[in-house]
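Good morning,

Attaching, inline, the backbone tokens for the sequence recovery test we're adding to the shared suite. The designed sequence is right after.
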């Protein structure tokens, strides 16, 4: 298991802050999603990451996982790395990957 270095992670976030990105891709915005759970989380995550409402199959598959923090992190990772997603900031991809490894 890789050690998570919060200081270097935040330094990389600050370096990439000038990177062109849609306004929703902020650390505060992504972490804010984790405060929601259930259907509220799914609706907010889909809107933020994919720009649309969850489809019936997506909601049915993800809803049981959206009640736990680990499940919400895994859903975020799946949405952020989906083929439908056209642009994921490096800091988000790296951070979610580290969290996924720590919680596996």
């Amino acid at each position: 298991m890789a050690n998570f270095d919060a200081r270097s992670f935040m330094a990389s976030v600050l370096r990439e802050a000038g990177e062109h990105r849609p306004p929703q891709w902020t650390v505060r915005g992504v972490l804010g999603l984790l405060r929601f759970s259930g259907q509220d989380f799914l609706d907010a995550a889909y809107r933020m990451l994919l720009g649309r409402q969850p489809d019936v199959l997506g909601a049915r598959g993800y809803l049981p996982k959206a009640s736990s923090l680990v499940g919400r992190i895994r859903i975020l990772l799946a949405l952020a790395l989906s083929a439908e997603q056209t642009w994921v900031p490096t800091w988000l991809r790296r951070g979610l990957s580290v969290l996924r490894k720590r919680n596996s």
